[in-house]
Design a protein that fits this description.
With 147 residues, this protein is mainly β. It contains one helix and twelve strands.
Amino acid sequence: MEKNEGYAQLLDLKRWSRQNIYLQFSNNDITKSVNKHIRINLKQADAWVRIDYNADNGAYMVSRASERLKDTTAKSNYEKAYVEASGVISPHDLKLHLIEDQSSLEFYFEGQNKTYSLLKYSTDSSTKINVETNGNNNLFYSLDNIE
């Protein structure tokens, strides 16, 4: 696995932006829980979104940026990072569902009754999907195009 700032890359590929993404994480040591941080990066030519999940306390931070916003106040508001509680702390298996299209993203942690939705300002019809961790975690995933 390639290391980046102490993070091991678990997935790195480019796909059409309309995706149903399923990510399932577990610890490489099957007797232990998912640990430390997992970062999901979705990058388009003119925009990006990052979800940084902390398995040790269940919080996740969502940040985003877009080159399409020119007004400095709008850009500043759009690029604010938000931290939320997932309700999933040190799980044996972490299951995350993401539904992405060119201009929006929705995701939820399996077993929780809330969905996080956000708007993306992008004109790019493809997305580079990058998943990395600084913990001892592995990844099973499936990707399906949304027609």
